[in-house]
Amino acid sequence: MLQAISLSKNYGSYQALNQLNLTVNPGEVYCLLGQNGAGKTTTINLFLGFIEPSAGKILIDNEEISASDDQRRKHLAYIPEVVMLYGNLSAIENLDYFSKLAGFDYSEAELMKFLSNCGLQEAAHHKHLAGFSKGMRQKVGIAIAVAKNAKIILMDEPTSGLDPKATAEFTELVKKLASEGKSILMATHDIFNAVSLGTHIGIMKQGELIHTLLASEISASDLQELYLQTI
Ligand SMILES: Nc1ncnc2c1ncn2[C@@H]1O[C@H](COP(=O)(O)OP(=O)(O)OP(=O)(O)O)[C@@H](O)[C@H]1O
């Protein structure tokens, strides 16, 4: 479980995040919506420990963690908008490398299983990443998150630039990860995707979470209307 309690971040006198309270339980997919500059990436960067909060707390499984805490690295995985991997290594070699960094030494069969479970076709397992599409890179990125056994996955604009088929595959994969008990937090601009794959939706404006909704209780068109009224 991932929690923010009254989490705030100031840059000088500018308040990028103001008293954020948010919980992502195992099995939940929390989608953060908001205009450019609303504070979504700031929130993710605080959870990741890339930046220090000005006030407030971050908890993982009810335990407060500090920015330097190693526990954070163990439990969290991050899928950025563009998954950065080694272009001159194959999918298997990338997965093996990052798994070993996280302390896991898997057999080739195990590595291939992670990649297949994340939707990467076997024919691509031994190919260099340099030739991969954005969707394929993302599958390898997610396989790395799964292989390191992270219970919390943070994603920043994961569907931007994906074609409809890759977006649909991504949606199915995220639902599967949630059903396996991962806590997933995602910053997105994609209202329709938030409704179809999210369990919870938060709308941010100027560093504040101003609406929290259950995805099951709102249609995409109602969410779009609310969003447009909000911003
Ligand atoms: N290092 C920094 N110094 C000063 N201001 C910053 C810094 N990082 C972010 N900000 C400001 O904080 C605010 C929130 O930015 P943030 O990147 O979290 O927004 P966002 O919701 O992720 O936007 P986008 O959809 O464009 O990614 C913005 O006004 C941004 O300019």
Automatic annotation (TrEMBL):
SMART domains: AAA
InterPro entries reported in the protein's UniProt record: AAA+_ATPase, ABC_transporter-like_ATP-bd, ABC_transporter-like_CS, ABC_Transporter_VariousFunc, P-loop_NTPase
Pfam families named in the record: ABC_tran
Keywords, alphabetical: ATP-binding, Nucleotide-binding, Transport
Organism: Pedobacter petrophilus
Keyword Flavoprotein assigned: no
Domain ABC transporter: 2-231
The keyword tRNA processing appears for this protein: no
Gene3D superfamilies: P-loop containing nucleotide triphosphate hydrolases
Name recorded for this polypeptide: ATP-binding cassette domain-containing protein
GO terms for MF: ATP binding; ATP hydrolysis activity
